[in-house]
């Protein structure tokens, strides 16, 4: 653009011609310098330069910003974006996406909202991958990678991916459903370039197809094979042969139908593994008595590159010492399916000096957490899951464990902590000891539980978190909370993008504080809290900046939601009915609303009404 | 005259229905009644609540106590609901056949490694269960800790895995008490029994009969209230074939106690 300006002020045409020619020669080394092409040439140069530069831009936020500079930048950015991320599959249609971005190699799509994981949404709500698969088959035949979260994928979709994309390399399905082992069989048999097949916490139906045997013969390019969530028997001999012919395999996560004896055989063939999911970690029933037990310790010792360990689905704790050789190298350890005690944990965790990510069950009690705090000084992420996820139990972990972690693990960035009791004091301590916290998710399992020591609500604890943890972007609250807690969040949670609220707050003011105070808020999920239409209205200025808002069992009425839908034409407001609700009830059970360029979706099931 | 006939007929039908219900209904230990028109809840009913409900019912003698009483019902975790108020429910969807929520089942063979007796006082004091936060604090609402759908927020995937692990450890014979919750329709609160204390089904049956002897079922007083005074009637009923103990197994099916060998 500056070049255009220069030309307008430039000297008479003959000199211009000369100077332009010179410029062209310098810039490109070629150049006819013909006057008729001169008006487009500098633009072309600029675009070429831009294209080359923008190729280096990987962050999608940076790219979004770049695309807003001007039309030229918009065009070039669209040409150079190779990884397309769509946080809500209904925000934009496949056609629109493929029209704008023409050279995409990797697609990352997210479907259902997170509360669907907790049975708060009837099945068959939507988020079908199928229209995307078909659109991409036309637009991106060179597509290499698909990453889906909470989407409905059918066996046919898997077949499409394998058959229509010849260079397909990576499939990652997180929390997906709708497909089975027969779909997997087709997929792996036809996808010759496959490097990554990661099935994570997905529901895979057992069609009794031996999909492991369907991997093509000959050397495989497999780098990652994760199937720990697949709840069916697999053909172990075929798996063993597959691992043996996959020299690049680095990540292998087995399901619980693989015994420890079988694990041994695989490890011996793949000592180069960096990520291992151990399967059941117990012997199979048919293990012979008096058979020599393999040298598990040696097998682990041979895996010198192992940094990430998980599995332990049906652990026999006697076998735990086998993993001692790798502990000192581990950066990630997932014991969240292993019901072990503090005593069983201690000898392991005391060796894990480099641990950064630790997932565990509360069976280790506060004592176990103290052991973690004593050794894992580098810990960045901790998740403590409940063995018994019910409300009316005494919990094995409490404020004592949280306090210990906060004192020992100062670099903590992300925590998810399920407990039955928690004090404000411990939460405040964590807010001060762990200033780097980005994610703070505390789930006090009993609803409306106050601080058991002071009897106070948990307002001050969460208030301290938003005040002291200046990098906080994700927050989940629980326990007895008044509007005051939300006032704190609105005042101090300026970077908060994701907020989860359940059984909290006293009045509309709480929601108002948050909607008015948190400019970065993207994802807000609320259940069973006393917020009504007035509160909903207070977010009108912000809803277009958000990915979605979920509210269930609150105090919204149909006409209140209708108001919002009318005021904001580019917002899709879905009213989701549970089975026993009547269609014309004024009280709304669940609303899920999200910005969209496409208006109401055409695939909504009967229990969804779009206002 | 026409309307009078209709009313009489309606009364008759009601009476017949009541009779049928009393006789034919095997009052299981754990409700078997799957009437879907009622919103059912997993809860504890206190005596106080029973009385209050009876008062609410007023003078309508024909009102079938059964219709309005809170029952233990479908796994699927429906929110606690005041008597008779069928429209009030949480937004949680009814189970569409999926029974993944171990937390919502009233009677399930749940084994715990430590003893925990149910504390009735704790439940009475705890009025924090506002499943439907839109509802006013209804004094007749039982103070029960109903398990709510989707809470705590643990993915059903994970819950299922932990439940499976529990079951397999039960099979391999863990030490410790095998505590099982036992409920009886109409009883104000549940009990827990340690299955390991008994060596046969007969012993269990006797123990249960003793445990529930403080209540009486099936004979409703004029106000539709449970007659708690008539112990001998209860013992008769419990020992008769009208009442059978049943339980829900890990597949979610209601099973008659006694089929599986005691071991």
From TrEMBL, chain A:
Gene3D superfamilies: 1.20.1280.50, Ribonuclease Inhibitor. It comes from the Eukaryota. Pathway: Protein modification; protein ubiquitination. The keyword rRNA processing does not apply. Its main location: nucleus. The keyword Heme does not apply. Keywords: Auxin signaling pathway, Nucleus, Ubl conjugation pathway. One of its GO terms (cellular component) is nucleus. It is found in: Nucleus. Residues 103-148 form the Transport inhibitor response domain. Residues 43-82 form the COI1 F-box domain. GO terms for biological process: auxin-activated signaling pathway; SCF-dependent proteasomal ubiquitin-dependent protein catabolic process. Pfam families: F-box_5, Transp_inhibit. Part of a SCF (SKP1-cullin-F-box) protein ligase complex. May interact with auxin and auxin-responsive proteins. This is Transport inhibitor response 1-like protein.
UniProtKB/TrEMBL annotation, chain B:
Residues 15-24, 122-140 have a biased composition (Basic and acidic residues). PROSITE patterns: PB1 (PS51745). Signal peptide: none annotated. Its main location: nucleus. One of its GO terms (cellular component) is nucleus. Residues 1-32, 85-104, 112-149 are annotated as: Disordered. Keywords: Auxin signaling pathway, Nucleus, Repressor, Transcription, Transcription regulation. Residues 177-263 form the PB1 domain. The keyword Nucleus applies. It comes from the Eukaryota. Residues 1-11, 86-95 have a biased composition (Polar residues). It holds the Pfam family AUX_IAA. Belongs to the Aux/IAA family. Homodimers and heterodimers. This is Auxin-responsive protein. It comes from Gossypium klotzschianum.
């Amino acid at each position: 653009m500056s070049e255009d300006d220069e030309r307008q002020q430039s000297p008479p045409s003959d000199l211009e011609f000369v100077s332009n020619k010179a410029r062209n020669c310098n810039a490109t080394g070629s150049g006819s310098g013909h006057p008729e092409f001169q008006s487009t040439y500098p633009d072309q140069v600029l675009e070429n330069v831009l294209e080359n530069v923008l190729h280096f831009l990987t962050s999608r936020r940076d790219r979004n910003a770049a695309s807003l500079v001007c039309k030229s930048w918009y065009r070039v950015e669209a040409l150079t974006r190779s990884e397309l991320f769509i946080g809500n599959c209904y925000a934009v249609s496949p056609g629109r996406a493929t029209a704008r971005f023409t050279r995409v190699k990797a697609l990352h799509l997210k479907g259902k909202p997170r509360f669907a994981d907790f049975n708060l949404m009837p099945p068959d709500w939507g988020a079908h991958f199928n229209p995307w698969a078909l659109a991409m088959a036309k637009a991106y035949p060179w597509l290499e990678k698909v990453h889906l979260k909470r989407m409905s994928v059918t066996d046919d979709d898997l077949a499409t991916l394998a058959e229509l994309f010849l260079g397909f390399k990576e499939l990652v399905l997180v929390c997906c459903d709708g497909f089975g082992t027969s779909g997997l069989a087709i997929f792996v048999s036809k996808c010759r370039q496959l490097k990554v097949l990661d099935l994570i916490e997905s529901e895979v139906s057992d069609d009794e197809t031996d999909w492991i045997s369907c991997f093509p013969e000959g050397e495989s390019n497999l780098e990652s094979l994760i199937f720990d969530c697949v709840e069916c028997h697999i053909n172990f001999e075929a798996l063993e042969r597959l691992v043996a012919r996959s020299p690049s395999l680095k990540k292998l996560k087995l399901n619980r139908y693989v015994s420890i004896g079988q694990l041994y055989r695989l490890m011996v063939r793949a000592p180069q593994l960096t990520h291992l999911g151990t399967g059941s970690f117990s012997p199979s029933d048919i293990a012979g008595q008096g058979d020599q037990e393999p040298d598990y310790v040696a097998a682990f010792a041979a895996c010198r590159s192992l940094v990430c360990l998980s599995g332990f689905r049906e652990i026999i704790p006697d076998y735990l010492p086998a993993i001692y050789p790798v502990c000192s190298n581990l950066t990630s350890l997932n014991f969240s399916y292993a019901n072990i005690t503090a005593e069983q944990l201690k000898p392991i965790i005391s060796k894990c000096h480099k641990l950064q990510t630790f997932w565990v069950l509360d069976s280790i009690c506060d004592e176990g957490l103290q052991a973690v705090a004593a050794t894992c000084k580098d810990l960045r992420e901790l998740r403590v899951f409940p063995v018994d996820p019910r409300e009316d139990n005494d919990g094995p972990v409490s404020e004592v464990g949280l306090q210990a972690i906060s004192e020992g693990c100062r670099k903590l960035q992300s925590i998810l902590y399920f407990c039955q009791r928690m004090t404000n004091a411990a939460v405040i301590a964590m807010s001060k000891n762990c200033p780097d916290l980005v994610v703070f998710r505390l789930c006090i399992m009993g609803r409306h539980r106050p601080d058991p020591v002071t009897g106070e609500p948990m307002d001050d604890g969460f208030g301290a978190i938003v005040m002291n943890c200046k990098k906080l972007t994700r927050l989940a609250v629980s326990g007895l909370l008044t509007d005051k807690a939300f006032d704190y969040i609105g005042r101090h949670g300026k970077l908060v993008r994701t907020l989860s609220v359940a059984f909290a707050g006293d009045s509309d003011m709480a929601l108002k504080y948050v909607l008015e105070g948190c400019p970065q808020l993207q994802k807000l999920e609320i259940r069973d809290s006393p917020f009504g239409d007035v509160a909903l209205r207070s977010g009108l200025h912000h809803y277009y900046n958000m990915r979605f808002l979920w509210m269930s069992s609150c105090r919204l009425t149909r006409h209140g939601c209708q108001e919002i839908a009318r005021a904001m034409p580019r917002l899709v407001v879905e009213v989701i009915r549970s089975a026993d609700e009547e269609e014309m009830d004024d009280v709304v059970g669940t609303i899920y609303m999200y910005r969209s360029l496409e208006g109401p979706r055409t695939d909504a099931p009967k229990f969804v009404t779009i206002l | 005259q026409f309307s009078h006939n209709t009313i009489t007929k309606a009364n008759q039908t009601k009476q017949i229905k009541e009779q049928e219900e009393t006789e034919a209904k095997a009052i299981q230990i754990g409700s078997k009644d799957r009437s879907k028109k009622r919103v059912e809840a997993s809860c504890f009913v206190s005596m106080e609540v029973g009385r209050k409900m009876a008062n609410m019912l007023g003078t309508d003698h024909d009102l079938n106590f059964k219709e309005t009483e809170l029952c233990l019902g479908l796994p699927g975790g429906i929110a606690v609901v005041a008597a008779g108020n069928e429209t009030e429910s949480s937004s949680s969807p009814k189970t569409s056949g999926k029974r993944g929520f171990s937390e919502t089942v009233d009677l399930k063979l749940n084994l715990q490694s430590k003893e925990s007796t149910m504390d009735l006082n704790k439940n009475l004091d705890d009025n924090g269960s506002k499943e439907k936060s839109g509802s006013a604090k209804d004094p007749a609402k039982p103070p029960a800790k109903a398990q709510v759908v989707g809470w705590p927020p643990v993915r059903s995937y994970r819950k299922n895995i932990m439940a499976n692990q529990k079951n397999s450890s039960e099979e391999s014979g863990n030490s410790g008490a095998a505590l099982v919750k036992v409920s009886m329709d109409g009883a104000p609160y549940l009990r827990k029994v340690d299955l390991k204390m008994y060596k046969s089904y007969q012993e269990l049956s006797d123990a249960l009969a003793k445990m529930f002897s403080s209540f009486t079922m099936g004979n409703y007083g004029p106000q539709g209230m449970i007659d708690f005074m008539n112990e001998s009637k209860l013992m008769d009923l419990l020992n008769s074939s009208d009442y059978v103990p049943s339980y829900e197994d890990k597949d979610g099916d209601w099973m008659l106690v006694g089929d599986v060998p005691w071991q």
